Write the structure tokens for this entry.
Amino acid sequence: MKVSDILRVKGSTLYTIRPDQPLAQALALMAEMDIGSLVVMEHGDLVGMLTFREAILAIVRNGGSVGTTIVRTVMDDAPLTCTPETEMDEVRRMMLQRHARYMPVIEKRALMGVISFYDVAKAVVDAQDFENRMLKAYIRDWPAEAEAPAAKP
């Protein structure tokens, strides 16, 4: 299974923000859309990733207030990325290694989508469920073994 399989099911809705925008605006968008991340884009290029993790850390550092913080100062400016052709096993390894919950999908510098750890886990569970159903159907339709001829006395 590849990342493109997840994107095909998930759809292509993307939420982005510019690095010079206020963190408060980013958080309002994340809350309104019920999302855990925003891709930070500047001049058509991916320049970072803002997740609830970076936002919470920034608020704690600022004494519990967003204040005048801008996205650029708190975003992850070297986010983990993959391509639509990246195999799911590799994505899982990458996300686990870096403790990443969200990963932008890039193809030839173009943002194709964002996959989350939830998306990856769901794809794995769905694949296992399908395999289990196929195995159960195979076992249920198992041909009856031919009766062995009786032994001669």
